[in-house]
Amino acid sequence: MRIDSSSTAAAILPLVGGPANVLSVAHCMTRLRLGLADPSLADEEALRAVPGVLGVVVDDGSYQVVLGPGVVTRVTADFERLLARPSTAGEPAEPAEPAGGLTGELTGRPLADNGGGPTTADELGARGAGLREGRRRANATPFKAALRRLAAVFVPLIPALVGCGILAGINGLLLNAGWLPGLSPALAAVASAFLALIAVFVGHNTAKEFGGTPILGAAVAAIVVYPGVAKVTAFGVTLAPGQGGVLGALAAALLATRVEKWCRGRVPEALDVLLTPALTILVAGLGTLYGLMYAAGAVSSAIGTAANWLLATTGAFAGLVLGGLFLPLVMLGLHQALIPIHTTLIDQQGYTVLLPVLAMAGAGQVGAAMAVYVRLRHDTSIRTTIRSALPAGLLGVGEPLIYGVSLPLGRPFLTACAGGAAGGAFVGFFAMLGDKVGATAIGPSGWALFPLLAGNRGLGLTAAVYAGGLLTGYAVGFAATYAFGVTDRVVAAATSRGSGKPQKVK
Question: Is the dihedral of CA 249, 250, 251, 253 positive or negative?
Fold first, then answer.
């Protein structure tokens, strides 16, 4: 069912405190990300009941409304239009209908045995809400704040990465099939132009995020991809255009921001408009040419070499570890550190071999949720939650299942990790055999990743290996959760609620 984005945006705005409480608006692949002056003014329970809202994530410094792919783009645009028209944005929204019983949020305490704990959707949501403050405090560290700022640089690039990645895949199919040969050069240009200049966009976003002038950050980062750097030689080594990639652009823009801030405090106001931009580009540009490009190039090469070696030599074990630990990394917010690594691999090799392995964590989560659905067949509220959230989970949007079902229950979260580990080991095993499975863009996972798959042995085999990993994750996540993830006491409690009297569980 297509969500009315304007109605959803109009319903969300008053529930986050109104226009005066909204400091910033952004979005990623699935979430509307808001900066709120006073987060306590937001009504989380009412937000979760808005049709189209899949969940709410409260992170330190960010208030995130989970809407899903596609929907989030339309809702964000309508939300920003409402902010630009405060007279209409301030009008009260109509009461929202419950959205399929989705409840439950981020948690931060150790997972508990669910032997006698809550099992209804409302009780699970209450447990998640009670643990949220601990999660917020755990995230309030300088390291995690740096990761969030790093994510703010790269997340806005994801739509272009996805679009160009799909076009590159279509062009590959046309080339392999020998169809429309006259169109391929044009399609290749359309698909490749963004990646060729991605350093400029990274520089722009970096300066914007860290308090500099975005266009100056872009100007300095553009040096990294300028063909003329091939004429520059230092320390006996000639530079190559693109050397250092996105990491070099990130470092160049950070240096430009530091230089600009230094100049702003020392250059006379009458000369600021002339001297500050010139000095910023000169000093940061020379620093980029004679230092940062060499260092970032070495780091980028090491990342590509390490990723390929890891999967080629220890693929099954590496996949087991990466697939099994990714959900906990997401809970801790540490997955954001992988964004520049994925982007570096895409810039270097055309695809990232890590994302398909990490995507197996979502498959384990889907399998675990299906097992809970079967085991708790008398618990209508939980089954309603799972039915509502499962389609999004299959498309790689796992927050509703994680925060509304498996994480508050405890054991299903662990068995979901086991499913992710099994799926990751499956994909990693084929990497050891020389069958690389990569993704040409970051953001989507689950079934939504199929159009973005790429590899070294043809699209058919690549898709088959990825599909095999998903099926393995589903199966192991389901089996582990069915056998160990839901205790007999929980099943008995659900049966008692459904029948009106206790029943013995065999």
Answer: positive
**Which own/partner pairs from 449-452 qualify as long-range (CB within 8 Å, at least 24 positions apart)?**
449/355, 449/356, 449/359, 449/396, 451/165, 451/166, 451/169, 452/162, 452/165, 452/166, 452/169
Do the beta carbons of residue 31 and residue 57 sit within 8 Å? yes
Cα 126 from chain centroid (whole Å): 26
Mean pLDDT of the chain: 85
Q: What is the DSSP secondary structure assignment for residue 392, as one 8-state letter?
A: H
Q: Is 109 left (phi over 0), alpha (psi -120 to 50) or beta?
A: beta
Q: Specify whether 164 is catalytic.
A: no
Here the tokens at position 171 are 């062009």
- Alpha helical stretches, state H, 140-244: 142-154, 158-177, 184-196, 198-209, 214-225
CATH architecture assignment, domain 1-89: 2-Layer Sandwich (3.30)
Q: At which residue do the structure tokens 């969940």 appear? A: 55
* Residue 149 φ then ψ, to 5°: -70, -35
**Model pLDDT for residues 372-388, shown as the tens digit of each residue:** 999 998 888 889 889 98
Q: 438 phi and psi, to 5 degrees?
A: -130, 170
Rounded to 5 degrees, φ, ψ at 303 are -65, -45
Query: 504 pLDDT exceeds 70?
Result: no
pTM above 0.85, yes or no: no
Question: Which residue in 28, 164, 263, 417 is the catalytic one?
Answer: 28
Domains of the chain: which residue ranges? 1-89, 151-303, 320-499
* Least confident among 115-129, 197-211, 246-260: 115-129
Q: Which helix (H) or strand (E) holds 422?
A: helix 411-432
The tens digit of pLDDT for each residue in 49-89 reads: 898 887 888 776 678 898 877 788 899 999 999 998 644 43
Report the helix count and the strand count for the chain, using DSSP H and E.
22, 8
Q: How far apart are CA 408 and CA 126, in angstroms?
A: 9
The residue type of 188 is A
Q: How many CA atoms lie within 13 A of 426 on its CB side?
A: 26
